[in-house]
Amino acid sequence: xxxxxxxxxxxxxxxxxxxxxxxxxxxxxxxxxxxxxxxxxxxxxxxxxxxxxxxxxxxxxxxxxxxxxxxxxxxxxxxxxxxxxxxxxxxxxxxxxxxxxxxxxxxxxxxx
Length: 112
What we know:
Elements: E1 2-3, E2 11-12, H1 19-30, E3 35-38, H2 44-54, E4 58-59, E5 63-70, E6 77-83, H3 85-111
Antiparallel strand pairs: 1-2, 3-6, 4-5, 5-6
């Protein structure tokens, strides 16, 4: 299960005894690197658990993390990517609310 960590990024533990995975993901989240391919799984189920654990993870710079799992057996892997989709969505919502507020303020001033 995911667990909160100090700082702006949340880290995950796929299974007990996987500190190397946690460290590699932490370094990725803190780095300027955009994509990480992780392939140290014994099967697709572990890769899928990692993908599930990454849902909602945020990295420095307003990035959101997306991930996908594929492969079979020891060839299972997970592709982790940073995206600005969440950040862009939040910014667009804020801008729309500011425009609406300005419009409402204009109407209130006109009717005062």
